[in-house]
């Protein structure tokens, strides 16, 4: 495993054998696989949105899935398997939406993973390792991969606020649209340093908007 989004990361660099927070390698692989499928859903949803098509269930799931992979939110491997199963169902729903937007002839999702039977845990863990941070570092270099991960962590943080706001009855379609755009962009994987920095800054804007939703709800209560 390789995990380094928090201050608990071993030696300030990353946990490579077992998380200092308690995350084990299997859980890390499940989270990495869930993130990959969520990127694919985002890619499909972004393409559909270009034709003014969206699905509320897809929007909600993307935010929930990003929140689920935040460090210390959920280390239950059985629950993560359930979320992966749901991700595959939502991906199918997003594929249908994208096909509708493209008049039945959508583009192929770049870098899509083929998920094995859900009962094969070892196969799921192995697949998760192929899309883990260290795989991206090896492919793209530490700087570019690190900037992409910065965007991912920004999305996760904004999603945490968005999920809580939605549960209380407040949401903003623009936040969901940005999630999809950013995930689609990361999946395509063709951004340079400046473009990744720009995307990270836009994560801050989405995070602020999600926090404003929560702040507005609190203001209503008081």
Please give the number of β-strands: 0
Low-confidence stretches: none
What is the beta-strand fraction? under 5%
Domain module count: 1
**Coarse morphology:** globular
Structural class: mainly alpha
Order of helices and strands: HHHHHHHH
- Provide the CATH topology: Substrate Binding Domain Of Dnak, Chain:A, Domain 2
Helical percentage: 55-70%
Q: Any idea of the CATH class? A: Mainly Alpha
Main sheet: strands, sense, barrel: none
CATH architectural arrangement:
Up-down Bundle
Structure keywords:
222 residues; 8 helices; mainly alpha
What does this structure look like?
The chain has 222 residues and is mostly helical. The chain has one domain: Substrate Binding Domain Of Dnak, Chain:A, Domain 2. The chain contains eight helices and no strands. The protein has helices spanning 25-49, 56-68, 77-101, 121-130, 133-140, 142-167, 173-188, 193-221. The chain is globular and about 45 Å long.
Secondary structure: elements and pairs:
Elements: H1 25-49, H2 56-68, H3 77-101, H4 121-130, H5 133-140, H6 142-167, H7 173-188, H8 193-221
Helix pairs in contact: 1-2, 1-3, 1-4, 1-7, 2-3, 2-6, 2-7, 5-6, 6-7, 6-8, 7-8
Kindly summarize this structure in a few lines:
This protein is 68% helix and 0% strand.
